[in-house]
Structures are given as C-alpha cells and as structure tokens.
Amino acid sequence: MPTTGINGFQLHFELRGDGEPLLLLHGGMGIGDDWRLVFPADPHGYRLIVPDFRGHGRSTSPDEPFTFKAAADDIRKLLDRLKIDRAKAIGVSMGAKTLLHLSSVDPDRIDRMVLVSATPRFPDAMRAIAATFTHEVFAALPSADRDALRARHVHGDEQIRRLYDMTRSFATSYDDMAFTSASLAAIRARTLIVHGDRDPLYPLELAVELFRGITRSALWIVPGGAHGPIFGERAPRFRDEALAFLATPD
Question: Does residue 94 lie within any of the structural domains?
Fold first, then answer.
C-alpha cells in the first residue's frame, strides 16, 4: 500500500494487476476501497491505480482548500511518478469531476473514461445540501456513524472535519466546476456518461449538457437511479457495461 509525496501531502494509492493502466477514482468523502463494492474481483487485463483523494482515507491533507483542479493535478503527478503516459479511467461523482479537469487540461492523458454522476457546474440543489455540512452536524451524528467515518478516514476527527469543510465549500464555489462548451470540447477521450434520472444533486439536464459538449461521448441514463447509481443491485450491469465500453476499440 504505497504512498507518495505530492503537492504537499502524502497520497495513498494501490497498484494491482497487470495490463493496461486503469484509474479508479472514488466519490467525495469516500475511499479507494469503495471500488470493491463495484468490482469484488479486479478486472482482468488491467493494472489498477486506486488512490485515496487528498484529505480522504489514508491520504493526508495539504494546507490548502480542496479544489477539483488541484485533485486532477494530484492524479496527473501520480501518473507521472508511475511513468504512465496514458490510461483509461472510471470516476464517480468527485472522481468524475476530477476526470473532467484532467482530461480537458491534459487531453492525451486519458484514452477512455466512464463518468458517473458528473456535472459541469454546481446547481442550487447541490449547493443547498453542501451548506449543511457543518462541524456541528458531524458532532451530532450517532456514535456508530462517527465511528464508521473514523474507520474510513484514519487520521482522526480533524481530517473528518476538514472533509466537512471541503463539502461545505462547494456551496460557494463558482470557478472550480465551471465547464463551458469550449472547455468540454477540449476533451478527446471517448467518454461514457452514466447518470441516474433521479439524481437529487445533479439534474439529468446537466448530464445531457456534458453529452452535448464532449465530442466523443455516449450517455447512459439509469432509470430510477439516484446519485452514484452503480452500487448494490446495479453493480453487475454497470461492471459489464463499463468494462465493455473501455475495451471497445476506436
């Protein structure tokens, strides 16, 4: 379970398997191990790169506010350290937003990608929910819920409070997630956009906007799907569809 110093913090990541590089990027307040819920067995034919984002899980927190632009730079530098010039990728929510930044700033780095519950910007519904992530809410959680967070984010309550600060900051963030048709058009990776039609954070219209903006994209709308509609009973189909998409030749 290696770590590497990147951008002023220790980034934890796992490397598993042999074959083409495949990045798996988790969601906000999640950890890399969450991908075990989708892929109980590692996909055959891939060298998996599975990080914990800055401030999450076993990674430490840099002395600066979280941005998706910075998270994308972390992943770019991790790939540089691993001498990986080009990779495939799957990202959910935070991971998908990070991939939007990485693939638009460094278009040759990502070959194919699957974006789950992504958005070009933060809508009002998401901002309202983000604003509720206060330290007082964390302190008022049932002890079992706080212990569950501590088991996942191993650097103590200060790390978790910083994750709450991160989420709350999205309520007033306007320049980090601000993709336009021009910036989306810079993405050259073949892209599968996966979105639940009942996502309470990002309305379906935002997924359609991504589909229209990313030239080489396809859109899979998950009927009845909420945010991150790839877990539980939906995991087997997602697994099959995502891997089939990644393996399809140009």
Answer: yes
Which range of residues forms the domain containing residue 60?
3-121+178-247
CA geometry: angle 109, 115, 116, nearest 5 deg: 155
Residues 81-118 have pLDDT tens digits of 999 999 999 999 999 999 999 999 999 999 999 999 99
Asked whether the predicted pLDDT for residue 242 surpasses 80, the reply is yes
Residue 131 in any domain: the answer is: no
* Number of domains comprising the chain: 1
pLDDT, tens digit (0-9, with 9 covering 90-100), for 34-64: 999 999 999 999 999 999 999 999 999 999 9
- Of 3, 87, 83, 81, nearest to 48 by C-alpha is 87
In a domain, 129, yes or no: no
